[in-house]
Write a structure and sequence with these properties.
alpha/beta; Rossmann fold; 8-stranded mixed beta sheet; 8 strands; globular; binds nicotinamide-adenine-dinucleotide
């Protein structure tokens, strides 16, 4: 029998982690204090596992074995008993996390790694006063972690190197690629990259340079095609015969001019948002968002299947 992972909070992210751990052979206990939340999560997981099979990302046998490794826990204590890994995916509220983490630290075994899925709260904010704070960290996924390989590990100042290395080993065992931050910082790495890009997108629309749809074209039908398999440094390295240094020599002045002509910071909630929203609603009625989310997830699965196949036939 595999090691035990306790999933604490079984909403969108908790249930996705449950699939991720169980698929890799972990015994997964699901706990959520809200009545009916765990059965709802298990029902959703059944649908998600079926989607994975349909998209060729899981075979029927592995689906059955994955599902058999999931079990509801009747209390936090029962979920954490003997667990080697605790993945907290409770609501993004600091006070709630502070109280919950006192309980997690009290109930978990001394050897357990305690990981939070938080998107934006620094780990020092809810682990500082804990006796076992050296084994606490943020393990931030992109949604859903059973499809998206990248995860970021963000330590608090007191997180031990041993915890970080163990977390890295566990995440790699689940098939993740890992970003290990040297220290905590707002937005971690991925949301800082995203913030820079989204801010520029708002600026371009607010300044009337292009439309919201044209920003999406630039990413969807342009830059993201390459970024899908190579990051900006590899793209640069391959875009000049002499590699990244040659790229910087050739194009640095272009980027210097861009940065020198920085557009003013727009108010994201101002008229620019009316324009972006109108553009989006023209293409997708609000009532169709949930349906389109399913489309996005299917596209993501198809892309992942393609990336796996291309890695095998063309190489990474
Ligand atoms: N949604 C995303 O795209 C995304 C991506 C990465 C990380 N995260 C992070 O994951 C965490 C969970 O987000 P989500 O989108 O799954 O939210 P969610 O609202 O879907 O799920 C939260 C779950 O926590 C449960 N809960 C409420 N109080 C609790 C408590 N005291 N202890 C344990 N569980 C409790 C709720 O019943 C619910 O099932 C947040 O910290 C969020 O920032 C979310």
């Amino acid at each position: 029998m595999g090691e035990v992972c306790a999933i604490v909070g079984c909403g969108l992210i908790g249930r996705a982690w449950a699939i991720d751990f169980a698929r890799a052979g972990w015994q997964v206990r699901l706990f959520d204090p809200v009545e009916g939340a765990v059965p709802a999560a298990l029902a959703a997981i059944d649908g998600l596992l079926a989607d994975l099979v349909e998209n060729g990302l899981l075979d029927a046998e592995a689906k059955a074995a994955t599902r058999a490794r999931l079990e509801p826990a009747s209390s936090l204590e029962a979920a954490l008993a003997g667990a080697a890994w605790v993945q907290e995916s409770a609501p993004e509220k600091l006070e709630l996390k502070r109280e919950l983490w006192c309980e997690l630290d009290r109930l978990a075994t001394a050897e357990a790694v305690l990981a939070s899925s938080t998107s934006a709260i620094l780990p020092s904010r809810f682990t500082e006063d804990l006796a076992g704070r050296a084994r606490c960290l943020v393990v931030h996924p992109l949604n859903p972690p059973y499809l998206v390989p990248a995860v970021e590990l963000c330590p608090a100042p007191w997180t031990s190197m041993d915890t970080l290395l163990r977390a890295e080993t566990v995440m790699r065992g689940l098939g993740h690629s890992v970003i290990r931050l040297a220290r905590e910082i707002d937005g971690f790495v991925m949301n800082r990259l995203q913030a820079a890009l989204v801010e520029e997108a708002f600026k371009l629309v607010a300044a009337g340079i292009c439309t919201a749809e044209e920003v999406d074209i630039g990413l969807r039908d342009g830059l993201a095609l390459r970024w899908c398999f190579a990051g900006p440094f590899e793209v640069g390295d391959l875009n000049a015969p002499g590699g990244i240094r040659d790229y910087v020599t050739r194009y640095r002045s272009v980027f210097d001019s861009v940065l020198a002509s920085a557009l003013p910071r727009p108010d994201w909630t101002g008229p620019v948002l009316d324009e972006i929203e109108a553009s989006r609603r023209l293409r997708l009625l609000a009532a169709e968002i949930a349906h389109r989310q399913r489309w996005r997830d299917r596209r993501l699965m198809a892309l992942l299947a393609h990336k796996r196949q291309a890695s095998a036939t063309i190489g990474d």
